[in-house]
Write a structure and sequence with these properties.
By secondary structure, the protein is α+β, with helices and mostly antiparallel strands. The chain contains 23 helices and 39 strands.
């Protein structure tokens, strides 16, 4: 079999994909795709003046990123994908093979009743696709194939009426209703026959302990009905009959819960005003005042096995073996006989009103052996079949509800188009990674279905839907649809992408009007990456303007030092940082989506600030969100990263399978995606991140091998391999690289003055063996909270350093005591031997934020410089401050770097003179400060 095509190859083939004939998941199909590759032109948008490399073009070499990725690859290899598929198969009424649903947000017992289930499967498919692109391991292709095959079967099943799922029964075969299938058995209206005496008997095997799930329910509404619930609110079986609603029920309650996953026999008899409930042949309840019978109920509309006339009650999950109805009350002896034999083989015989053995192994109907011909039909509570192309782990009901919803309620509707995006992105990535045509067909079908649905809605309805918190959230669906359109070329797919325009958001951001205060952060960030792709497809400038301006409203105005944003998932007022610190700051999804937005903006406009931000968020929040621990069952990724004092990161958040664990899986398998970019015309190579890696630039016939232990090393080496090629090497000069950025080629210094926050260009014809050495010394520096300059966070080069201390109050530190002439604050700290990037300050160990530990940490501390100390010499003079909080020491050190001690002493004299003249410092204290500066010895 031909090997799967690379992501690059498939993107190049995208332009012709729509015109190509359908291909099967075979070697022939792969070969056909290869022919398309040879004929195709690139599908990278023409608006991108800079382009990314495919993941399989960049190999991570041993180092920090590779180590973190390896931990996630263990999860990608080890987690049972059938657990993820369980919720899809259950929804379609297919066998689940005994797989247990993941739980948490993916489970019916999870948050909001599992209304987001299916999203995690999409994330997992993307992770597997990226893992395959990054490693080439066959295990990931195999797992993708299993999942795509199953999802294809699920979609096909959803397009049909439900079919019986035959399993082993109490006596022969039985019919199973998998939890989450929403299936029940619909009986003809004549089933009760208007009987004045009756026996109803059933063999059931409950699979879930949900209260009020019905074994049977015969009724018209919530007023006139007769039911048997496997569990009431007390957890025991209950029979009831009423013509006056719940308050008028005549009932029988059991004494013990039915065991799960075991067969139990239930029977109810009514005759002569007495009702009796039997469980496994034993009478457990008797009511001698039961005056109501089926005759009193009359002809009923709803005659169901497994479904309740109360819409909020769960559907029965489990299996049925026999169900019989007799027009008389069986004796206790007859019911005892039913425990060991089918009704047909017992003295009672088959029910004369209805008798279902559930022996069917196919189809969607059940034969009635009573002689009355009352054929029963298997149905879904939500109707069906689903519309063409629909694929989800729950019915279309959430999508339908959203169209008329005016307020958000995630227990009813939880972001169905968000979940659709995750599934769409997952199957599309599976196609791009493996060439499996089934995956492309799933993606295209989903978009066909969404277009058919949304294109019929009025514009006002769409705007209302997309403006709803949570319920109307649609994630990055616009980007995914635009990516699909670049492959299929279908006009409906581009039209679909535009149906997600949220005009209020676009128009305000395009006008640079900040309306972010109070918005749900991660609901909106990925929207703008999609709008950039719409700009690529349509050329409409408002999309680009909105995305560019939006980014500037977040960075730096709502950004924490680690690169994260949001508090309790929302944005607050502009420039409020200290005022928003909490245990629920910095949702991990937000950082993931800000990285995507930043790199996509850079493709259009090569502003270094985008890659500066990328480095900050990647090397701090994103890496730090992954625990440094292998686990096959859990990705071990944070949801929130609290920035309050003493916060301990939670790597198993909420109930599991959350959005942030999903994006965390993705982040950890694509660390290499932005290390290198290339100019669209091939004239330049951008080195954006410093990380051990190897790039294969096939078009140029060269490789670039980056050797470094960055950020534990303050520099890197690039070695050119392959044939000669001419191009400009553009090296990012980080904004923090104020201590210098020096470049040599083959040992010779390159002329020019690199400027922090820019790219430094080296242009030449490169030859194999050429070596570029980059040195970028780190300095220790602080970043101040915009709304409270005394609250600060510490950086060493790109690395955020956090204090490990269990105190729950802000720690107080001074840093000027031994500051170097360069302005570097590092001499005030003591390095920890054998632990790179670890330092001690006043007894507290500071460590890189990227280390995924469970230590209590302090990301922010209170800056406290109570006395003027210079070169470790204490003047004894209090450090005065201006009304804005700026201190004397702040102004002195603002003049760094200093050429030598004399320059620093001159700065001290000048500053002291100004403060004395302003009445902020006494003449005597000023003289003491100057003498202290003159006596002190300073680090370089």
């Amino acid at each position: 079999m031909a090997p799967p095509l690379s992501r690059r190859s498939l993107l190049q083939a995208a332009a012709l994909a729509a015109a190509a004939p359908a291909i099967s998941h075979t070697a022939t199909g792969r070969a056909a795709a290869a022919v398309q590759e040879a004929q195709a032109v690139t599908a990278v948008p023409s608006a991108w003046s800079v382009q990314p490399f495919a993941l399989d073009d960049v190999v991570l070499r041993p180092g920090l990123l590779a180590d973190k990725r390896q931990l996630m690859l263990d999860h990608a290899r080890g987690y049972d994908v059938n657990r993820l598929l369980q919720v899809f198969r259950a929804n379609a009424g297919l066998a689940t093979g005994g797989a247990v649903a993941p739980g948490g947000w993916e489970g019916l017992d999870g948050e909001a009743n599992g209304n987001l289930r299916g999203h995690y499967t999409g994330h997992f498919l993307t992770m597997l696709s990226q893992a395959y692109a990054g490693t080439g391991e066959q295990v990931f292709v195999d797992r993708i194939g299993t999942m795509i095959g199953a999802l294809t079967e699920v979609r096909a099943a959803l397009r049909k009426d439900p079919a019986v799922l035959s399993v082993g029964g109490r006596f022969g075969t039985a019919a199973e209703n998998v939890r989450g299938s929403y299936q029940y058995v619909d009986l003809p209206a004549a089933v009760l026959g208007g009987a004045s005496a009756i026996t109803l008997s059933a063999w059931v095997r409950p699979a879930h302990d949900g209260n009020w799930a019905r074994v049977f329910d015969f009724g018209n509404d919530n007023t006139r009905y007769m039911y048997l619930a496997a569990r009431n609110s007390g957890g025991v079986p209950r029979f009831a009959v009423t013509t006056g609603g719940p308050g008028g029920e005549q009932g029988l309650d059991g004494t013990a819960a039915l065991p799960l996953n075991q067969w139990s026999h239930l029977a109810v008899t009514i005759a002569g005003g007495t009702g009796t409930l039997y469980v496994n042949g034993t009478s457990v309840a008797r009511n001698t005042a039961m005056t109501l019978t089926p005759a009193a109920l009359g002809t009923l509309t709803n005659n169901w096995l497994g479904r309740s006339n109360f819409a909020t009650d769960p559907v029965f999950a489990g299996a049925y073996d026999e169900f019989n109805v007799w027009s008389r009350a069986l004796s206790a002896a007859e019911i005892t006989q039913l425990q060991g034999a089918r009704a047909a083989d017992a003295s009672a015989g088959r029910g004369n009103l209805a008798s279902y053995a559930f022996d069917e192994t196919s189809g969607g109907t059940f034969a009635d052996a009573s002689g009355r011909g009352l054929t029963a039909t298997l149905r879904r509570t939500w109707g069906g079949p689903s519309h063409p192309g629909f694929l989800a782990a729950y019915p279309e009901t959430q999508f339908i509800d959203l169209e008329s919803r005016t307020t958000s309620d995630y227990t009813k509707v939880w972001a169905p188009y968000y979940t659709a995006h995750k599934i769409l992105r997952g199957v599309l990535d599976a196609y791009l990674a493996t060439g499996d045509a089934r995956a492309l067909d799933l993606a295209s079908g989903m978009c066909d279905w969404m277009h058919a649905r949304l294109s019929q809605l009025p514009e006002a309805t769409l705007q209302r839907m997309w403006g709803l918190f949570s319920s109307g959230e649609f994630g990055g669906i616009v980007e995914a649809v635009c990516d699909l359109h670049s492959i299929t070329g279908k006009a409906e797919h581009l039209a679909l992408a535009r149906l997600f325009d949220l005009d209020r958001l676009i128009d305000n951001c395009a006008a640079n009007t900040d309306i972010l205060d109070g918005l749900h952060a991660n609901q909106h960030i990925p929207i703008f990456t999609g709008y950039l792709r719409l700009y690529d497809a349509t050329g409409e400038a408002r999309y680009l303007d909105a995305a560019r301006n939006f980014w500037g409203m977040v960075v730096p105005h709502r950004m924490y030092g680690i690169g994260g944003t949001s508090t309790a998932e929302f944005w607050k007022a502009r420039d409020v940082i200290a005022g928003t610190l909490s245990d629920t700051t910095a949702e991990t999804c937000c950082a993931y989506n800000m990285l995507k937005l930043s790199r996509t903006l850079f493709f259009h406009e090569q502003q270094p600030k985008y890659m500066d931000y990328y480095e900050r968020a990647l090397y701090n929040q994103v890496l730090g969100s992954k625990q440094d621990k292998a686990d096959a069952e859990k990705p071990l990724v944070t949801y929130f990263i609290g920035l309050t004092p003493g916060h301990v990161r939670d790597y198993t958040p909420k109930q599991g399978t959350t959005c942030c664990e999903g994006t965390g899986m993705e982040s950890a398998t694509k660390y290499q995606d932005s290390v290198y970019f290339k100019a669209a015309d091939g004239s330049a190579l951008y080195v954006n991140l410093y990380s051990p890696s190897q790039l294969t630039w096939a078009e140029k016939g060269v490789t670039i091998t980056q050797t470094t232990s960055f950020p534990r090393e303050q520099g890197t080496t690039l070695t050119i391999g392959g044939a000669g090629a001419a191009f400009a090497l553009r090296l990012r000069v980080p904004s923090w690289a104020t201590a210098g950025f020096r470049v040599t080629v083959n040992g010779s210094a390159v002329s020019g003055t690199p400027t922090p926050g820019s790219y430094f260009t080296v242009s030449r014809t490169w030859r194999g063996g050429d070596t570029v050495r980059i040195s970028m010394p780190f300095r220790l520096r602080v970043e101040k909270a915009l709304d409270d300059p005394s609250l600060q966070t510490l950086f060493h080069g790109p690395v955020n350093l956090v204090g490990r201390n269990s105190s729950t109050s802000h720690l107080r530190f001074g840093l000027y005591r031994n500051a170097g002439l360069s302005g570097d604050l590092l001499p005030s700290l003591t390095p920890v031997s054998g632990k790179p990037l670890h330092f001690i300050l006043d007894g507290t160990e500071f460590a890189p934020f990227f280390e995924g530990t469970e230590d209590p940490t302090h990301a922010y501390f209170r800056r406290s410089e109570p006395r003027v100390i210079l070169g470790n010499s204490d003047s004894g003079v209090a450090n005065p401050a201006k009304s804005d909080g700026t201190t004397l020491l702040d102004e002195i050190w603002a003049g760094a770097p200093f050429a030598g001690k004399g320059a620093l002493v001159s700065r001290v004299r000048f500053t002291v003179s100004a403060w004395v003249s302003a009445g902020l410092l006494s003449q005597a204290d000023g003289q003491t400060v100057v003498r202290t500066a003159e006596r002190a010895t300073y680090a370089p």
